Amino acid sequence: HIPQGPVCTNLGLKPGQRLTVKGKVAPNAKSFVMNLGKDATLLGLHFNPRFDAHGDVNTIVCNSKKVEEWGAEHREAVFPFQKGGTAEITFAVNQNDVTVHLPGHQFTFPNRLNLSVFDYFDTQGDFTLQSISWE
Predict the structure, then answer these.
(1) DSSP 8-state symbol, 3
(2) Rg for the chain (alpha carbons), in Å?
(3) Residues in domain Galectin (predicted)?
């Protein structure tokens, strides 16, 4: 059972805006998830840092989801998260992609669903959300 964190709807994030998430990683974390999209069925970005889950160790796996259909997985080898540590992640929405800003690292993930606005955000797994802000 994956613990479900807060769910945000009607965010209205458009290109040029960013969402910053701060929180705490569980001391015995296996993985956590942040989803950004139109709603729970259309996810432009499924962001899944895995400490040790699904055969991945210290890997960030990103994907997109259209209803029940997942896209191709994208893996980032840089892993700036620590069990029991704090995490700050910023998602910057651009015209054609989302830039994910991590401590000391950033990467982009394409907007495969061509979403013009990101209204939905949720967190799941071994992560406690402490603050969320957008501009």
Answers:
(1) P
(2) 14
(3) 5-135
Average pLDDT over residues 50-71: 97
The pair of structure tokens assigned to 105 is 């690292």
Q: Which of 128, 125, 117, 131 is nearest to 60 (CA)?
A: 125
Give me the pLDDT at residue 48, please.
98
For the segment 118-127, what is each residue's pLDDT rounded down to a tens digit? Answer: 999 999 999 9
Model pTM greater than 0.90?
Answer: yes
Query: For residues 128 and 29, is the Cβ–Cβ distance under 8 A?
Result: no
pLDDT at 1: 56
Backbone torsions φ then ψ of 73, nearest 5 degrees: -70, 140
- Domains of the chain and any CATH numbers: 16-134 (2.60.120.200)
21 CB neighbour count, 10 Å cutoff: 21
CB 40 within 8 A of CB 120: yes
Residue 116: count of CB within 10 angstroms of its CB: 11
